[in-house]
Amino acid sequence: MSHDSQRQGVSRRRFLQGLGAASTLPLLGGLSPFAIANGSAGRVVVIGGGFGGATAAKYLKRANPAIEVTLVEPAEVFYTCPFSNLFLGGLRDMRSIAHGYDELRDRYGVRVVHALAEDVDPDGHRVRLSNGETLAYDRLVLSPGIDFRWNALEGYDEAAAELAPHAWKAGAQSELLRRQLEEMDDGGTFVMVAPENPFRCPPGPYERASMVAHYFSQHKPNSKVLILDAKDNFSKQGLFTAGWERLYGDRIEWVGLSGDGRVTRVDAENLEVETEFGTRHRADVLNVIPPQKAGFIAERAGVTDESGWVPVKAETFESERVRDIYVVGDATVAAPMPKSGFCANNQAKVVAAAIAADLSGRAAPEPYWTNTCYSLIGPEYGISVAGVYRVQEGVIAEVEGAGGLSPADAPDHIRALEAEYAVGWYNAICQDTWGTSV
User: Fold this and answer.
1) pLDDT at site 438
2) Which among 139, 226, 236, 297 counts the fewest CB atoms within 10 Å?
3) Contact assessment for residue 434 and residue 101, using Cβ atoms and an 8 Å cutoff
């Protein structure tokens, strides 16, 4: 690969990163965020304080400070799934992925309520909270993330997750899995069960395997990683497998669907799993990432379909099933956009612009979205995928030629730069979403 093509590849990714940050301006319809402050105010309740919900709350107030925005989120400290794998690999501590809501309250005037949203009355436009409060809304934004399909894998329920953690919601489960890795004897096997599509963060399981392998290379050099996968293809597969071979040799083994990788039963007490054709695998540390669906409040609001996910209108992300309810993030059916933090952040800006326009009697601006997803295979070995999306003929479509993958034959210094860019990306999107770390 020539130096010119390397520079072009890196420049394109830098352009896409900048596009993601700059995309807030077109999403506000070309108007200054404060120029429409005199428009009609309204009441908007946002449920969920992650990349989607916190961004929606913030950008609603930026679009029109007169809108009364209430953010409902049970956790006072939000731990991001992005970079939680680095905690497992020993490259980060939990504090570095922890974020709070002071900026939303103090700078933007968002009312933040730390409670669980228990029910939605779409006809009465009300939300009932676990603290006994009822919130009235003119528009409702749901950013509920994911819930798990407990027992979709026989034997894997909430109790089993305390023995064989999923760690697919960052926080206590991440800490549990890290302790298990630390306590594991050298020479043991870390077994990961990866789900079929769709699920939160398509490259996430494979970055996790990479980070666990890195941890083993530093602390338990005779230990192995086995991935049992319910599918035959995964995001950035060629880049991951090349990186595994380059950094870890045969330490990571991946078994796909056609190789009998689909797990159907979990025995968490004995740290054992059984595959579709009866093969049993015993783990020293067992990480089960189960099948998923939209967070439960989406079902309570009546916006999910038979798939368990939420179909939305492409132009605004308003629910296809219930008026005045908008949904962003992992819970949505928004392919070809992946279920990623960057997509949730971009979708939230589209929703904020659409709601602000609607409440002031204007048409929603034409939307577009970007996605950049970095994965670390090692501390100085990063890879990425990027995409740009627009509405074409009424559906969301990827803009051909606007995105792409890291070059397959990139030299080590390019991989090191991508690892650097990943940190910059994380810092930028967290600043954009929450403002400051805890």
Assistant:
1) 58
2) 226
3) yes
What does the alpha-carbon distance between residue 58 and residue 432 come to, in Å, rounded to a whole number?
Answer: 9
Write the pLDDT tens digit of every residue in 359-417.
Answer: 999 999 999 999 999 999 999 999 999 999 999 999 999 999 999 999 999 999 999 99
Q: What is the mean pLDDT of residues 53-67?
A: 97
3-state SS, one letter per residue, for the chain: CCHHHHHHHHHHHHHHHHHHHHCHHHHCCCCCCCCCCCCCCCEEEEECCCHHHHHHHHHHHHHCCCCEEEEECCCCCEECCCCHHHHHCCCCCHHHHEECCHHHHHCCCCEEECCCEEEEECCCCEEEECCCCEEECCEEEECCCEEECCCCCECCCCCHHHCCCCCCCCCHHHHHHHHHHHHCCCCCEEEEEECCCCCCCCCHHHHHHHHHHHHHHHHCCCCEEEEEECCCCCCCHHHHHHHHHHHHCCCEEEECHHHCCCEEEEECCCCEEEECCCCEEECCEEEECCCEEECHHHHHCCCCCCCCCEEECCCCCEECCCCCEEECHHHEECCCCCCCHHHHHHHHHHHHHHHHHHHCCCCCCCCEEEEEEEEEEECCEEEEEEEEEEEECCEEEECCCCCEECCCCCCHHHHHHHHHHHHHHHHHHHHHHHCCEC
Q: Check whether 239 has a pLDDT greater than 60.
A: yes
Tokens 């940050």 appear where?
21
Give the list of residues 6+ apart from residue 59 with CB closer than 8 angstroms, or none: 24, 27, 348, 349, 352, 353
Comparing CA positions, the residue from 353, 411, 366 lying closest to residue 32 is: 353
What's the pLDDT band for 437 if we cut at 50, 70, 90? low
Query: How much is the mean pLDDT over the chain?
Result: 92
pLDDT of residue 25: 34
